Structures are given as C-alpha cells and as structure tokens.
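Q: I'm writing up a methods section and want to include an example of the input and output format. Could you take the sequence below and give the corresponding predicted structure tokens, formatted cleanly so I can copy it straight into the document?
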Amino acid sequence: MTPMMEHVQVLSLYTFPIALIYAALFGLRVWRDFAWVTLITLALGAIAASSAHLSCIVRLLAGSFVADVRKRPLRPLILFDRECDPACIPVRECLCVLDIAVSVFPVPLINASKSLLKAPCTARFRGDLIARSPTGSDAVPMLEDPNTNIVLQGDADEILLYLYTTYARKGAHRNMGPPLAGTGGTRATAKLVCLLRSFQPYGLYAQPSLYNRRALRLYAHEGCAESRAVRERLCSLQLHFEYVTCAQGGTGRVQLVHQIGQLRTPVLFDPSTSKLAEGARACLRYLDQTFDCSSVIQLQLRRLRARRRAWVQQQRQQQQLQERIAQEEGVSSAAAAAAGAAAAAEDEEEGSASEAGAVVGGADGHEESDGEENASANMYGGSMQGLRARSAHSVSAT
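A: Here is the clean output for your methods example:
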C-alpha cells in the first residue's frame, strides 16, 4: 500500500470517529460546533503526511516538551513495553515529559499468522517480565525503578502517578498538554492511535529476528512522527534498546547535539558495530539489514537465486561450447573421412593403372618371345635347307 493510499484510507475511515471523540471530550452539544470539529480534524488529517503524523496530531504532540523536573534518576528505569498498546502510550509520553532515560524491553504479541515469514516466534523477554513481576503476570506496561526498588505493573494511571510524584514538581503534568494523563480522553485517543497504526505489519506482533547482545541506543521522543516507525520496528523485532528522550528543553537533546552535532531525530546507535543511523529511513534500513530475519532471509534468497542463475548460465555456456566443439569435430572428421576416401580412391586408381601397365608389359614380352622363336625357326629351316642342298650336290657329283 502506497503512502497516498494509506493516507486516503485513514482520512476516510477515522475522520468522523476522531470528531466524535473530541466532541465527547470537550462536551460539544451543538451540531455547528461538531461540524467545526469535523472540519478541523479533516484539515489536520489532510496536512498529515501519513498515519504516523496523524497519530501525533491525535495525541496533540504530547511528549514533545519537558516539564519542570524536580530530580532525575541516577540509574535508568526499566520498562517492559508494547508499542501499539493503549496503556503504554501515556507512560512513554510521561517519560519524555519528565526527561527520563529508560531501558526498554519490548514484549510484542506472538502470532505466527501475523509473521512476515509465517514462522513461529518466541517471546524473547516474556520470561524476564514474568520473573520480575510482583504477581507473576505478563501484563504491560511494567515499570521497574532500581533507584527506589519499586515495581509497578498493568495500571498506567498508577505508573503515571508514581512518576509525577517522584520526579516532577507539583503541577508539572499541566505542561503535558491536552489530553491530560489519566483522563478518558487519553485512553480514547490512545486506542485511536493504535487503530491508526494497525495497518502496519510492525508494532504489535513479533517478527523473527536476530538477538542483539548489547542494547541499542535510540534518541527520539513521542511527539516525533518519524520516531514512531522506528520504535514499532524495534518492538516487533524484540530488540532491547536504551530510550534517550529528546523532548524540547531536555538533557537528551543536549546530549544528542554534543555527540552527533544535530537535533534531528530519530538517531539510532549500535554499540556492537559502532554504526550510527540518522533519520527514520536509515534506521529502518539498518534494522532490516542487521536484525530482521525476513529481510536477511530474503537477501540470502536473492543471493542464492543470483548464484543459481549464474550457475545455470555457466552450464548453458559450457553446453553450447561443447556442442560447438562437437560440431567442429564432426565437420573435421567428415572432412578427414572425405579426404581419406579421396586418398583411397587415388590409391585405387594408381593400383589399377599399375596393373594395366603390367598387363601391357606382359603382352609386349610375349610378342617379343614369339618373334625370337620365329627368327630361330627361320634360321633352323634355312640351315636345314642348306644342308639338304649340299647333300644333293654331293650325290650328283658322285
């Protein structure tokens, strides 16, 4: 689904429910006021570039500004969280308002049919959640404060009350902005945000991923629309990360400027590889290429397919070369056979010619021997005739 199609779908489905929620929240009784709220909601939705921006607008940028903080914890808090959970959203916003860094352990839902690879996933931190839970439950959110050894689980209002009474000055929750924490409007808008982000494959259900040995570090805040997509990816991939809140006026923003030299969020740092990703696209690309099993497997499959295509092409080239060599050898053998036949024919012609010469030579020899015999016979006949003549002459003489 393209961002424009998603934006149109969100506007068409959720403009009227948003207006209804705010009408119930502010007690609008006149249809004219409700119409104005609807038009304002539609205008804000048209300004929003995606459902993430619209989610921040629905929450009225809660968690973007730091309140008056009385003290900050020496050691970071521990939060077992699920990104697309209505109870966890106000807790993260409160942490941003109080400028508290927290170590986040994502606990997404397990559903193999929702996995991109259609493969079963294991709950990586569910065992730790149950082990640390005071009741042995796996409910989220669960906040553990190692500075006071207090563990709170399940009830978001109780967690918010503890955070405000421990780390904030009196009345600091007013700087959080409407809708106020703990009111019905907050629960309703939090549920609406979860509905708005339900079109995304990440944020609620676990995806197969690789384990990160060292915790990632994320510089972001809840009022940043781009940071929401990065947190959803971290939640679905079940990657343990340190959430450094960078709300306006907080120490996290100063730390970000000193370390990186800019104020743009989100920023993701991996201490295992010492790589830094700035911006939502760079963060998502790094997470997909490094930890997402579906992306890694797809990349390996593409490499294997490329190798297979290269191997098949090489085999075809070798086969064509062998056929060409066989054809050339066949042509050369045929030429050699033709040359041998021609040589044999020439030999036969030479043999026949020699035989004919021998026959002619034999006939000539017979003729010469007959002549010699005739000549010898003539000489013998002459000699006999001479002897006869001599004998007759001698007889007559007597």
